[in-house]
Specification:
Alpha/beta knot; 257 residues; alpha/beta; Trp Operon Repressor, Chain A; binds ligand 9D3; 3-stranded mixed sheet; 2 domains; elongated
C-alpha cells in the first residue's frame, strides 16, 4: 500500500511513521510513504502557499495553484489513481470501520491543511473524502495523518507480530473495551492480583475477563454497548457486574441512563 502525504511538513509525518508497527511495515515492504511539499511547487521568490481570505477575517487560506502543482507532481511520480483524503475538523470522524475500508485501498493521498484551511474550490475538485480524528483542535492535519497511517498500517497483512494480533483489540474484535491486565508480583503494596487469574481454571478466567470487558464498557463507554445485541450469557455477566458494582457502592449513574 502506498501513502502520499501532501503537507508543508511532510518529513514530520514520515518521521512519525518511521517507528513501531508502521516502520516495520515499511521495512517489510508492505507500505511506502512519499512526502510532497506544496512549498516546492510554489512560484516566485517568496514561494507563497497561502493568502488572505476573501471576505476578511483572521488567518490564511492555502492557495489552489501550489496544491494543484503538488498533486500533478505526485501523479507524475506514479499515475496509479489515489484515493484523496483531506484531513480537517469538518470531516467525518475516523472510526475503525473507516480504517478497515481505507486499509483495503492500494493508494491513499493525505492532504494536510495548515492555517484556516484550503481554498474550497481545490477541495471540491480533488478531494474524495474529508476525515477528522475527533472533536478537539489541532494545529494542522499532520498529526491526524500520522494517526490514520498508524491505524491503517497495522491492518496490512503481515504488519503485526503474533503478540500484537489485531483481533483481540477493542473495536477490532467485538466492540467492547479490553479487560484489566496483571503481571508479577502477585502481592504488592499497590494491591493483589484477582484470584481467578491465578486459579488455572481457564473457563473461569475467560468468563471473568468477558465480564470485566462488559462491565468496563458499561461504565466508561455506554455508547459502545448495544445491550440488545448481547448474548443471554453476556447479559447475565453484565447484570452480575452491576450488582457487584452497586454492592461496592458504585454510583448508580454509571450506565443506567
Ligand atoms: C482556530 C482555528 N479554527 C477556527 C475556528 C479552525 C481550525 C482550522 C484548522 C481548527 C483546526 C485546524 C487544524 N486542524 C486540522 O487540520 C485537523 C484536525 C483537528 O483540528 N481536529 C481533529 N481532526 C483534525 S484532522 C485535521
Amino acid at each position: 500500500m502506498r501513502f502520499d502525504i501532501i503537507s508543508l511538513f511532510p518529513e514530520f509525518v514520515a518521521q512519525l511513521a518511521a517507528h513501531g508497527v508502521v516502520g516495520r511495515a515499511g521495512e517489510r515492504g508492505l507500505l511506502s510513504i512519499h512526502g510532497w511539499n506544496p512549498r516546492d511547487h510554489a512560484e516566485g521568490n517568496y514561494r507563497r502557499v497561502d493568502d488572505r481570505p476573501f471576505g476578511g477575517g483572521p488567518g490564511m487560506v492555502m492557495l489552489i495553484e501550489p496544491l494543484c502543482a503538488t498533486l500533478a507532481a505526485m501523479r507524475d511520480d506514479d499515475p496509479a489513481s489515489a484515493h484523496v483524503v483531506y484531513l480537517s475538523p469538518q470531516g467525518r470522524p475516523l472510526t475503525q470501520a473507516k480504517v478497515r475500508e481505507l486499509a483495503a485501498r492500494p493508494r491513499i493521498a493525505l492532504l494536510c491543511g495548515r492555517y484556516e484551511g484550503v481554498d474550497e474550490r481545490l477541495l471540491q475538485a480533488e478531494v474524495d473524502e474529508e476525515i477528522s480524528i475527533g472533536d478537539y483542535v489541532l494545529s494542522g492535519g499532520e498529526l491526524a495523518a500520522a494517526v490514520l497511517i498508524d491505524a491503517v498500517a497495522r491492518l496490512q497483512e503481515g504488519a503485526l507480530n503474533d503478540a500484537e494480533s489485531a483481533v483481540q483489540d477493542s473495536f477490532e474484535g467485538d466492540g467492547l473495551l479490553d479487560c484489566p491486565h496483571y503481571t508479577r508480583p502477585v502481592t504488592h503494596a499497590l494491591g493483589t492480583v484477582p484470584e481467578v487469574l491465578l486459579s488455572g481454571n481457564h473457563a473461569a478466567i475467560a468468563r471473568w475477563r468477558r465480564q470485566q470487558s462488559l462491565g468496563r464498557t458499561w461504565l466508561r463507554r455506554p455508547d459502545l454497548l448495544d445491550e440488545a445485541a448481547l448474548s443471554k450469557a453476556d447479559r447475565a455477566l453484565l447484570e452480575a457486574f452491576r450488582a457487584d458494582w452497586r454492592h461496592a457502592g458504585g454510583a448508580s449513574a454509571g450506565g443506567d441512563a
